[in-house]
Amino acid sequence: MSNNRSDAVHIASFVIYLKPEHIAAASAELLAMSGVEIAQTDTTGKLIVVLETDSDAGVARFLDLAHQLPGVAAVNFVYHQSENETELAKEIA
């Protein structure tokens, strides 16, 4: 489902594979990006990244930027959910 309204929240996750010697530099660049969290790092060169943004275009921009990070071999798009911000704020009963 595509939700590009201004009250939308897009949550996406990715697995980024890169050369181990580039983990620190790539991690620093990722963490400098708005809405990016590194959920897991593997010393062999695998990062699990979660992105929260306000549009599909923000997800696409992140994918483009992630492919340009130093030492990146592949970026796998794992998950994407778009939700109304008000709905996300509701308590789950």
Shape: elongated
Order of helices and strands: EHEEHEH
> What's the pLDDT, averaged over the residues?
91
Measured between the Cα atoms of the first and last residue, the distance is 24 Å
Largest sheet at a glance? 4 strands, antiparallel
Identify the CATH homologous superfamily: Lrp/AsnC effector binding domain/regulation of amino acid metabolism (RAM) domain
Radius of gyration: 14 Å
Structural class, from secondary structure content? alpha+beta
Q: What fraction strand?
A: 35-45%
Helix amount, in percent? 25-40%
| Overall number of strands | 4
Spatial strand sequence of the major β-sheet: 2-3-1-4
Structural description of this entry:
With 93 residues, the chain is of the alpha+beta class. It has one domain (8-89): Alpha-Beta Plaits (2-Layer Sandwich). It contains 3 helices and 4 strands, in the order βαββαβα. A 4-stranded antiparallel sheet has the order 2-3-1-4. A hairpin with a 3-residue loop joins strand 2 (36-42) and strand 3 (46-53). The chain is elongated. It comes from Permianibacter aggregans. Chaperone for NapA, the catalytic subunit of the periplasmic nitrate reductase. It binds directly and specifically to the twin-arginine signal peptide of NapA, preventing premature interaction with the Tat translocase and premature export. It is found in: Cytoplasm. Belongs to the NapD family. This is Chaperone NapD.
